[in-house]
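REQUEST ID: PR-0412
SUBMITTED BY: lab tech R.K.
PRIORITY: routine
TASK: structure prediction, single protein chain
INPUT:
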Amino acid sequence: MKVRSKAPLRLGIAGGGTDVSPYSDTFGGCVLNATINMYAYSYIDDEVVGDKVVFEAVDLGISEEVALKDGVTLDGKLKLHRAVYLRVMNDYFDGELKPLRIITHSDAPAGSGLGSSSTVVVSMLQGLAQMYSLPLGEYDLAQLAFNIERVDCQLSGGKQDQYAATFGGFNFMEFYADNHVVVNPLRIRRYIVNELESSLILYFTGTSRDSAKIIDDQIKSLKEDKNSKLEAMHLVKRSAYKIKEHLLKSDIDAMAADFLEAWESKKKTSSSITNPMIQKIENEIFNIGAKSMKVSGAGGGGFMMIFVQPEKKNIVERKLEQFGGQVFKFQFVEEGSYSWTI
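STATUS: complete
OUTPUT:
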């Protein structure tokens, strides 16, 4: 059997970082995000010649082949591929290692801030669920993806990416202790979505970053400078509620204003969130039509989301290209992860 699957990448609109333990466990976190027409793809094939498993990440130019008689471990360049394979084999086949080929690629580079690593994991799981008819609902699949990254691979990070990739669309997500997650799908009228798309620029700085390292720094900062950093996190959380309300009411100007306030709060949670390059871009584009901005994901690089006056969007885009990065055209999409047999 041959299976293909895809899962959408997401824009973290508000509340990012509050989905990370220990904050979410202690105070409860909430995130507003939306999926876009950029994807992580998987191709899974069980018609493999020989008793082996093949892992390949086309976009990274990495391929690994493992003889099943030697066993499969997490030690290798494609750790996430190995972890997904092992978790499915252990949980659903009592540890029996099946010959398989898993090939992936993503429309966004790892460390870009669009949740690409988690989305690749969701895509692989979605494909394996299709191939083996695994009993995985949306919450099950997202939680399993989270466990693979955060428990099996010991990678620091939050929970929003896995749930966004699985569910798709505009969602307001709540995160509590004991992995309790509630996904609230938002019904956004089409004209609001159009206005939001017209008001946003997605700009790749050309610099990827290690999100786990930044999140570790954020957690460390919360512990060392508890009061000020904690208050900044509370502000990030409160902004998510306000921005959600503005979005539902189509008040894009108020949304942009709170977006900027949330970005200033986010920068106070860790010194790694921004850097001189990001600061220079911020200073220059605000003079020519940009209203507010933030760095998507953990921060430190990757993609920037910029609110602009729609009629000045092209001027800001031309300015951004002078910094050596790339403007990505995008649209919001409603569908989450899905798979099909070929």
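NOTES: Residues 2-188 form a domain with the Ribosomal Protein S5; domain 2 fold (CATH 3.30.230.10).
REVIEWED BY: pending
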